[in-house]
């Protein structure tokens, strides 16, 4: 983005009705970094006007405290070396003699400790995106520039330790130095004239790159949920039907190691809760045999489902989406064939369809793209059991439709257990994630920033309710969340979602029953708004009037077989 | 209006969106509310980006009107 584009984006948003307040904390003059940050955030919140507050020059630690007081929806923090010791900047007239190095190291350590304290407090009030010093150190060290000095490495170590601590804090996201290196070459990051005359040290390009990273960390895109992979010349090298099980390869000996790396990457994604499915035109028995090879990188039980037949790939993809019960725009399809990719894309235009590269050198770019699409700040317990719960859902469907079984007899023998927890917060972050990614059973499609979520729950009349579910087929984890408030005899639900994995188990009924019981209210009122995708919610609410009275609920509610544990914190 | 005038006017309008196009030609810190040091730094950065010329920070204080900035751009382009 050019500077003028950033300014024009910001100017164009001036008339928006609602303002979203963010904060940029830095010790230098924020100048263009503020403009670029505002523009990148503006693109993520097109309906609102972004306002980026700033602090005062030369006082980063104080600005972190000011950010806390500002009540912003998020804060971007750009640390410069001169924030750790002013002698490491270009604007300070101090001797760069070897004797001062020990004192600089001591000062940097103390400054880092103070920033640690301030960042920890700030992160309790809003999400933080943090950039460690991104400009090169001035030439203080006595070694030639091509040789690292212990002094420089020790400075870098202090910065890295601060970053390491910050990255472990669930509310602080640290800008990746590697990614910044890729998009903003170090040699052209600094604008010396601007630093000396304006107090702003970054080139336009670097300010743009850093602002883009900040915006992506402060308002991350929802991660994708599933990957569908081809097999021949993608998962492994070779055409299974032609060369047989022993003939396909993924190793150094056959110069097909790239496929092994891809397999390892898929296994790693599966272990983090990403759904992995296979769509392959192949002989199913041969594929099964290939997955029994000792050296396979992804065990067959980590993949669900396998759609292996000779029909069009788009049909396989449709089957997989149905099994996962998620939308095409949450899924990535990987295949080596441009024609297959085009065929799937034509049937599922919302899906990202990406070609497995023929050149091994391009593999890492593919994996980096997948990491960006699927990466999450934290892995939750539900992520670990997602694949298992899909299989249990399949087992559920099979048992439900077994000859001779009625739905009622099936439900009554399913050993369903729900745990309803009503609280003011959710330390795991699962409820926040659910509300922000669920589409089908979603009361109104409302999404929340972390700051909006916190602001809602800090109100004394509000609560967060979650439901965890398990049955004899296995646990589903926390699959429903609601934000509500009680006013007199009426309980209002402002948001309510239920994971699509948990449909048709009468959990939604049990949830309302639980709320009536826990809060002892006479009515539940829903803030229902139809969206293009929340048909299941509309269908469920169609069973009742709005608001739902306790008497009506008791009359209309079908038999519930759950064993219920309720916990109000 | 020359091509330079049009491009320079765009830079001014980005920094001072509330100033009409007719008033920009006569713009200076006295006639334009909000023309402070930050606005100067932003404006000159835009000019540098638009015309791909360096800004001589020694003479920044003299670049305080549409006309003077226009002259500076012309001098850099002919240099």
Walk me through this protein's architecture.
The complex is a heterodimer of chains A (569) and B (79). By secondary structure, chain A is an alpha/beta fold. Chain A folds into 3 domains: 3-218, Rossmann fold (3-Layer(aba) Sandwich), CATH 3.40.50.1110; 226-374, 3-Layer(aba) Sandwich (Rossmann fold); 398-568, 3-Layer(aba) Sandwich (Aminopeptidase), CATH 3.40.630. Chain A is built from 22 helices and 18 strands. In chain A, strands 11, 12, 13, 14, 15, 16, 17 and 18 form an 8-stranded mixed β-sheet that branches. A 5-stranded parallel β-sheet of chain A has the order 2-1-3-4-5, sandwiched between helices. In chain A, strand 9 (331-335), helix 14 (338-347) and strand 10 (352-355) form a beta-alpha-beta unit. The model of chain A has no long low-confidence stretch (mean pLDDT 93). Chain B is mostly helical. Chain B has one domain: ACP-like (Non-ribosomal Peptide Synthetase Peptidyl Carrier Protein, Chain A). Chain B has helices at residues 3-15, 21-24, 37-51, 66-78. In chain B, helix 1 packs across helix 4. The radius of gyration of chain B is 11 Å and the shape is globular. The model of chain B has no long low-confidence stretch (mean pLDDT 89). The interface between A and B is medium-sized, with 18 and 16 residues.
Distance between the termini of chain A: 48 Å
The CATH homologous superfamily of chain B is called ACP-like
Classify the helix fraction of chain A into a percent range. Answer: 40-55%
- Name the beta content range of chain B: under 5%
What is the CATH H-level superfamily of the largest domain in chain A? SGNH hydrolase
State the domain count of chain B: 1
CATH C-level class of the largest domain in chain A: Alpha Beta
SS summary, helix count of chain A: 22
